[in-house]
Input
Amino acid sequence: MPTFLHGPHRIAYTEHGSGERTVVLVHGLLFNQKLMTPLAEHLGRRGYRVVTLDLLGHGASDRPREMWSYSMTAFGEQVIGLLDHLEVEQAVVGGLSLGANTALEAAAFAPDRVCGLIVEMPVLDHALIGCAVAFTPLMLALTVGEPVMRVVSAVTRRIPTGTPALAPVDVALDWVRQDPRPSGALLQGLFFARVAPPSRVRRTLRQPTLVIGHRRDPIHPFTDAGALAEELPNARLVEAGSILEMRLAPKRLTREVKTFLQQVWPADGEAAPAAASSSAA
Output
């Protein structure tokens, strides 16, 4: 797997397809780029150059053990660092959950480098209580309970990987196969830093944006997705059936993504529309 240096750390990435139209897809918290591989491969077969990456602390990238190595702003900068490494002037950047917020951070950090956003299940203002309830016990397990989690990690690493039929299970197991100490540091770093660009910054992001949300998850409340679609001048909101729809039954949402990319890069070479209305599917 190729890597590039971002500061002192190696960041791993994978390319799917080729062409002038580049899409960067970013995974969720404590997952790795395998989570985005099915969509990346699908788009890669349809004329896009799709790049997935492992953010610092995830997958095959370096996993420092100091909490100050991790923040949402740093993740956004890593995406722009990837574009620099690939010598890509502009790209559509998208992701799920942590990856969605990373896409927003990348656009806030270097708006001229991001020509479109795919924001699936953002974690914003209405998610703070849900995240505290869900991730505080996990952070304690990865830090105070590190010896137990290390045993769990060792056991799950013995389970064979790479079987196509078990790909969703493999992705889920990667979540617990990791060394718990860097994962604990990562959660602590995110816990004490900003979750996403503030609303006043988000309102300045004029890139065409596809926002995907669903109604049954306190960590990714639909109110956050709806509010984001209202804040961004050129956003469209699509409602998913669940957080698993894109992973297990992706046909409808993949079609929405392809339609969005065709709007960003029209076949006739004309510029993308200046504004798109916000609506729920």
